[in-house]
Amino acid sequence: MTRRIFRSILFVSLCSCVMMLSLVMWILYSRFDAQLMDELAKEAKYLSISVQEQGLEALEGLDDADQRITLIGEDGQVLYDNYSDPAQMDNHMNREEIEQAQRIGYGKAVRQSDTLGEKTLYYALRLPNGGFLRVSSNQYTVVALLLGLIGPFFWILFLVLVLSALVAFRLSKKIVLPLNQLDLECPENNEAYNEIAPLLTKISRQQSTIREQLADTRHQQEQFDLITASMEEGLLVIDQQANVLSANASAFRLLGTDPVEGHPSVLCLNRSEPFRTAVEMVLTGQHREAILEHEGICCAITANPVLHEDKMEGAVLLLVDVTEQRQREQLRREFTANVSHELKTPLTSISGFAEIIRDGMVRPEDIPNFAGRIFTESQRLITLVSDIIKISQLDENAISYAWERLDLTALVQEELERLRPAADRKGVTLKLEGEQVSLLTVRPIVEEIVHNLCDNAIKYNRPDGTVEVSVCQQGEATILKVRDTGIGIAPGDQQHIFERFYRVDKSHSKEIGGTGLGLSIVKHGAAYLGAKTGVESTLGVGTTFTLTWEKQPFVLD
Questions:
Q1: Spatial distance between the Cα atoms of 151 and 524, rounded to a whole number of angstroms
Q2: Does residue 157 sit within a domain?
Q3: Which of 364, 374, 437, 528 has the smallest count of CB within 10 Å of its CB?
Q4: Does an H or E element contain 28, and which?
């Protein structure tokens, strides 16, 4: 802006200077013309008096005069001329100044010579004898005068240019200084030119609008960050060059990388083939879904393109942790296969024994034996179906039992008495330790849990072993422990023992009996009652199962 003002002032100054010089010269030139013509008229009058008194003798001796003097007769013939020979001169009767003088007594004329670059002024005066006296003088034309003054003119122009440049520089700085000192953060507090007051007011309004929009945008961004930060799902927003515009913490966690700053390429976060293919396909405008597996995490990726007026602007990637879902599906498949196997075994035995009896291939005295085997297998089948129903009810929270406050120690004592015959057959000693503890719980579920834990402790114990059950209260926590001196559980099996149909000692599973669902019922039942399960075991030493109620559950009557 300073340069524009400087150039404008300089240009105006130069134009003004040139116009002023031209106007002054024109005025002076015009004044000189008029003054010269007046002088010629005065000189002609003075000479006319001398001519009337002395005749041609008055004009003799004027050969060196600055003005040209010509005496013309009544018929137009030149009688005298101080510059030329009168005999060689033409008749002057048709000259403009002579014709005018003949009419009104005097005449004026101006004739210009383009070749010489000068003009001649003529003044003619009619004498009383009918003749004419003419006085003329040469004068430079404007062009000739300018050519003669071109040197001084350019010097003057150069000086004016320098002075104008200095003045323009100072003026432009002075004009722009208030503009450079404007406080645009508070436009209304400036005291500058009145002409820019509307602009400052408009800037103030626009700044207010921008601040409101920025505050609204910042608030929306904070809300968006808060929402996405609390999401379990991962969210990635990328542009058309695959650079990350926005990402939440879950996205980095599911991709198995640390959070990064800035806007790196999304392919730097994960370089697996499914992820790279999903990104490449979505940036071509195609919806894409993929499964990403790494470090035990299974992640489902849904990629959708973002289009604006049919132009690719970027993409949104949603990452969902489906590890648990996949595990449940795997467990469901395993459960279905195990149920089919466990149901098929007793049903095959029952069907085989019944077919033998039907075909008459059994002696009458052996029928009770075969009937007993059919009864045993059917009881095993009924137990298996009952356990499956229990687990399904616990899974679906479909238990219809009522909550009640009961003596946990007394309940454990009752279950131990029921299991004492089985313990005596194997030579296992049952012990109960601890204080009387009152617990708000569901009696059938607690009985099932205690029964399964103690039953397993007897089955997997060694002869002459011991099963110790302890009940105690530690602050608000209620703790139930079942300790045995059995075969123990290997560390690699401890994380699987609560799975359905999982058996530690598969070689002796048929001899030991059971459905393989006991500990699974314990786990689901404890979860339903709000208790935590734990296990500690050493091979060849024994196993301890622990149930802990952190605090009494709150139940609505």
A1: 114
A2: no
A3: 364
A4: helix 2-54
CB atoms within 10 A of CB 517: 25
Q: 119-123, 319-323, 335-339 — which is least confidently predicted? A: 335-339
Rounded to whole angstroms, the Cα distance separating 404 from 443 reads: 7
Number of domains observed in the structure of the chain: 5
310, with CB counted inside 10 A (0-12, 13-18, 19+), is exposed
Q: What is the largest CA-CA distance in the chain?
A: 199
Instruction: Say what the pTM is.
Output: 0.42
Residue 312 confidence class, pLDDT cut points 50, 70, 90: confident
3-state class of 443 per DSSP?
A: helix
My answer on whether 347 and 296 are in the same domain is no
Q: Which residues contact 524 (CB under 8 A, 6 or more apart)?
A: 391, 394, 395
Q: For residue 348, what are the β-bridge partners?
A: none
User: pLDDT, tens digit, for every residue of 413-463?
Assistant: 998 998 898 899 889 999 998 888 888 888 888 888 888 899 889 988 888
CB 320 within 8 A of CB 326: no
**56 token code pair:** 């041609």
- Indicate the residue among 126, 148, 170 that finishes a domain: 148
The pLDDT tens digits for 261-272 are: 778 888 888 888
Q: How far apart are the C-alpha atoms of 69 and 81, rounded to whole Å?
A: 6
| Residue 156, domain member (yes or no) | no
Residue 399, φ and ψ in degrees, nearest 5: -75, 130
Nearest to 168 by CA among 10, 392, 333, 382: 10
Range of the domain at 208: 182-229
DSSP per-residue string spanning 201-261: HHHHHHHHHHHHHHHHHHHHHHHHHHHHHT-SSEEEEEETT-BEEEE-HHHHHHHT-----
Task: Grade residue 190 by pLDDT with cuts at 50, 70 and 90.
Answer: low
CA distance 370 to 376: 10
Per-residue pLDDT band at 556 (split at 50, 70, 90) = very low
Same structural domain, 252 and 285: yes
Closest CA to 279 of 247, 316, 245, 250: 316
Q: Are residues 363 and 429 in the same domain?
A: no
Cα→Cα distances 419→414, 453, 460, Å? 9, 11, 14
Q: How far is the C-alpha of 481 from the C-alpha of 431, rounded, in Å? A: 12
Contact 472, 437 (CB under 8 A): yes
Which ranges of 313-399 does DSSP label H, i.e. alpha helix? 323-358, 367-395
Could you tell me the two tokens for 124? Answer: 């003619």
Whether residue 524 is found in the same domain as residue 412: yes
d(CA 251, CA 234): 4
Q: Report the C-alpha gap between 236 and 320 in whole angstroms.
A: 12
Same domain, 304 and 275: yes
Residues 355 and 427 grouped into a single domain: no
